[in-house]
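Form 7-S
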Amino acid sequence: MYQLPKTTETATTRSTLVPAMATPETSSVRRKPGRPSSSSRDDVVKAALDAYLHGRRIDLRAIATELGISRTTIYRWFGSRERLIGEILVLTAKPLHDQARDEAGGEGAERLLATFDRFNRAINGAGALRHFVAQERDAAVRIITDGRGVVQPSLVAWITEDIVDETERGAFEPQIDPPTLGYAIVRLAEAFLFIDTTARMEGDVDSLCVVEAALLGFQDPHAASAQLANRAS
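Output:
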């Protein structure tokens, strides 16, 4: 499976349209004229990633032409354009989650809230993702929230693992089973970050943090969120 090249990513690079991970290693693979294509599934991912990070539409026809393969081959490897995009979103979100988890302090519910809040803010500030959502809103929301797709199940797995880790360490006692709590945390973030435009809550990461604190069992969710904000400032 294709992996992002290791880079040192800052908050500034995450908030730009083309973050630091858009290195020459992620540039499109161009086939030399006159030679049979030896392009692989990973080459398609690289080309799609390059387009995504640079704010271009992920065009299967263009990728197929560039790599010297047919669109049929791409569909055979990925099933659909949306599935390919889902893989790109997961590929770029995983380092943000891991960084949020590694930088979170405390233990138990405090550590979980810090992890989720950092991750939410990184996602909300990811320029390439926000650009994609703005350009293809219906498709983007469908890709992100589809339980049968790639993105939501991956996020639920990561968040559930975070909860299980703190539970097994004896630092956290969830009031509901970790898979259900993980699913609720992810669905809540989807609503606040991408879906709920009517209530004007889209992108309201501060309110999202308060609600997540309540789900994690804090007696005073507002105080927990404020304490986390003060620590980060």
